Amino acid sequence: MQDEESLVRRAQHRDQEAFAQLYEEHFDKIYRYVTFKIGNETEAEDMTQQVFLNALKSISSFKWKGIPFSAWLFRIAHNQVVDYLRSKKRTTVPLDESLVSNDNNPQLLTEQKLDIEQLILATEKLTEAQRDVISLRFAGELSIAQVAKAMGKSQGAVKALQHSAIVALRKTLRVTENE
Amino acid sequence: MSKEKEFDNILDECLERLLVKGETIEQCLQSYPEQAANLKPLLQTALAARQAVAIQPRAEFKAKARYQFRSALQEAASRRRRPSLGWLPRWATVVTIVLGLLLVSGGTIAAASYSMPDSLLYPVKLATEQVQLALTPSDIGKAELCAKFADRRVAEIIYIANKGDAQQVEAITQRLDERLVMLARLTSAPEVAEAPRMLESPPVPSEEAGDDKDVQVRENNRAKLRTTVANYATNHPAGLRAALEKAPESTKPALRRAIAVSEAGYERALRGWD
User: Quick one: CA dihedral A149, A152, A154, A157, positive or negative?
Assistant: First the structure.
């Protein structure tokens, strides 16, 4: 794989294949992040498409100054999520079973779906910053360094947020388990 | 460094080992026996949060989004292309294009991997796939490539079906069938078919730790591949069926054959693990 910086530079010069490559590399992660944050897959589909169309429009303004492209893309996604949550009251819609990777085993599929729904509900009890860290780290599969860039925080601060988020998540998931 | 900060660093290191390197909770705890009691419940919760990666976009949405994005890319490129060379004499335009092609040839193979069957780079994509398969020594590596290439074929079928080219749909379906036949053969091979261990292994003596780690990585790869194939077994026929509803009448018979090929192909491939 070519390094991200050269791909981004080519994409900035409207190299279609370079941009298509960046799109393929980040599409699933951005979709997972948005779905995880808003809990509504239909809206997440529209929003994911919009993230990439916005990135296409503003790629020329992207400056390579130590901020990875993935962090920039997740910032676009984050801003869209914030706008969406501001305009609408968050409603978690049950996940469609076809959207969860499965083992062709109906029981496993249902369990996996419930686990994810429970997890999304549990994150609603976190602070906004904690939820951002968990969404970026576990749904977006970013490293701590990338999360730090995307959130504009130090790595130490993100690690501390990650720790407190997992502690809070554990409490909530345990409460849900006991119910 | 404060104790709290030190623990944050240890937790993050263990998360990397767990989530990225595929190590077990036990392996992480062995590295930090003094912190084990505090670490264990947090790592267990992190594994539960890892369920988030099971969220996958629907195949039909993905194909539609890809098509729309490529159209937006082409539109943006065509808006820019004409004026940039319009002022040059014709011969200079040709020289500029040739020089441009030479400059980007290093990225041609990478670029080709995302090309569609109506692109000039598509034959490069198919040739590159053959080379990748030939150069991959392990059965599990080859099986992973077959699944990846089958995913590409399905996206291509949906893309081409939208354009109404039945003949191309037939040709790509033939290639899809070839990959799925190969995948089924590989999933029956011992290296790929061996059932993943369901329980974590007990602690091992240190000299065997390296071997155990390799086994763990292989088992993780096998489990990942099985999840991917099971996922495709549902999503690919579903994506093709969704495309069938919107496709022009002329491509519908070819699309129906593609659906039958994908259903039968994945059933054969999953049988290897039964």
Answer: negative
